């Protein structure tokens, strides 16, 4: 298990609930070399006096060295936690998803706001449509399989596509990957209506083009 020790005085932001830990706040990282190099591995975060502060996803290649999963010492980071977080995010967005028309995009998971740092999920077309996922941090990238499994089980939507922002992934030291994670890829263009304005939408890139 990796152990991140925070510099004295730098733990204040964590105690205030800040979920990001920058390289400049870290005194040292203890653990096996292969664990330190594994992007998204879980680490215990402690103060300079060895007091428990959090459990976080560590990434040696990002300026945001760690992103907090939990401040609760009794809460392990495992499949059950990931499943709970995804289900809670979907429950929060359920009302918007239910009333959305088939030609609208609904945000189902919103990263840190849903305690899933770096994960963005949108839905288009309801159950028969597509889930578009972006894994913008190493922690959620490492838990990609259970995240997708839970999304499919909870929404009933079987077409899941991974969209990627190359610059964001590069900044995290993650490979640029995109494509279908389950079911079919979305078509090159679908109709989209926002605030009464009609667009053509490329779900794979997020690009919108106004109809003429």
Automatic annotation (TrEMBL):
The keyword Lyase does not apply. Residues 2-91 form the PUA domain. It is found in: Cytoplasm. GO terms for molecular function: methyltransferase activity. One of its GO terms (biological process) is methylation. Keywords: Cytoplasm, Methyltransferase, RNA-binding, rRNA processing, S-adenosyl-L-methionine, Transferase. Pfam families: PUA_3. InterPro entries: PUA (IPR002478), PUA-like_sf (IPR015947), PUA_sf (IPR036974), RlmI-like_PUA (IPR041532). PANTHER family: RIBOSOMAL RNA LARGE SUBUNIT METHYLTRANSFERASE (PTHR42873), S-ADENOSYLMETHIONINE-DEPENDENT METHYLTRANSFERASE DOMAIN-CONTAINING PROTEIN (PTHR42873:SF1). This is SAM-dependent methyltransferase. It comes from Massilia frigida.
């Amino acid at each position: 298990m990796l152990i991140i020790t925070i510099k004295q005085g730098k733990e204040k932001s964590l105690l205030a609930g800040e979920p990001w830990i920058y390289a400049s706040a870290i005194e040292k990282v203890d653990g096996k070399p292969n664990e330190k190099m594994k992007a998204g591995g879980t680490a215990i975060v402690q103060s300079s006096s060895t007091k428990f502060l959090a459990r976080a996803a560590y990434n040696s290649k990002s300026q945001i060295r760690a992103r907090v999963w939990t401040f609760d010492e009794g809460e392990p980071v495992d499949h059950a936690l990931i499943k709970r977080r995804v289900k809670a995010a979907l429950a929060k967005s359920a009302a918007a998803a239910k009333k959305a028309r088939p030609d609208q995009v609904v945000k189902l998971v919103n990263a840190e706001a849903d305690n899933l740092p770096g994960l963005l999920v949108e839905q288009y077309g309801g159950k028969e449509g597509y889930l578009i996922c972006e894994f913008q941090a190493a922690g959620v990238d490492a838990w990609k399989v259970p995240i997708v499994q839970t999304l499919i089980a909870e929404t009933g939507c079987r077409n899941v596509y991974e969209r990627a922002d190359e610059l964001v992934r590069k900044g995290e030291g993650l490979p640029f990957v995109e494509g279908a994670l389950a079911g079919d890829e979305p078509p090159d263009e679908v109709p989209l209506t926002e605030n009464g304005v009609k667009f053509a939408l490329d779900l794979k890139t997020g690009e919108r083009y106004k109809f003429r």
